[in-house]
Amino acid sequence: MKKLLLVCLPMLLTGCSVYNQFVERMQTDTLEYQCDEKPLTVKLNKTRQEVSFIYDNQQQTLKQGVSASGARYTDGIYVFWSKGDSATIYKRDRIVLNNCQLQNPKR
Predict the structure, then answer these.
(1) What is the CA 7 to chain-centroid distance, rounded?
(2) Helix (H) or strand (E) segment spanning residue 33
(3) Beta partners for 53?
(4) Element (H, E) at 5
(5) For residue 2, what pLDDT is reported?
(6) pTM of whole model > 0.85?
(7) C-alpha distances out from residue 6 to 15, 18, 38, 51, Å
(8) In whole angstroms, what separates CA 55 from the centre of its chain?
């Protein structure tokens, strides 16, 4: 019985991990923006209340913050701010990606 448990336990744990990754992907939206400077792909994870994107050749992951209007995500250096179908990215209070328009928005 112990041998069976030792064989089955890793398989069960692997199954849990795969399931969690599946659920995570199901709760993540991919948003495509066209900004003045270049296109931008943003992953919005509703469960974790965070966004992630590539900027300066690095993955940026920002947590949702307080916003009077729209949705604001920040890590203290970068800010991703969206309202409706538009977004702006700031780095240390300076705009680095401007006039980002959501492509094929859901209505």
Answers:
(1) 36
(2) strand 28-34
(3) 60
(4) helix 2-26
(5) 61
(6) no
(7) 15, 19, 52, 39
(8) 13
Q: Which residues contact 106 (CB under 8 A, 6 or more apart)?
A: none
pLDDT in tens, 12-30: 556 544 454 444 455 799 9
Place of tokens 């792909």: 41
The whole-number pLDDT of residue 100 equals 97
Q: In this structure, are residues 29 and 102 in contact, taking their beta carbons and an 8 Å threshold?
A: no
Q: How far apart are CA 41 and CA 74, in angstroms?
A: 16
Return the bridge partners of 101, or none.
Answer: 34, 86
**How distant is the alpha carbon of residue 23 from its chain centre?**
14
Cα-Cα-Cα-Cα torsion 63, 46, 59, 102, nearest 10 degrees, comes to -110
C-alpha span between 58 and 79 (Å, rounded) = 15
Q: State the DSSP string of 21-90.
A: HHHHHHTEEEEEEE-SSSEEEEEEETTTTEEEEEETTEEEEEEE---SSSEEEE-SSEEEEEETTEEEEE
* pLDDT over 60 (residue 98): yes
Cβ distance 63 to 78 under 8 Å? no
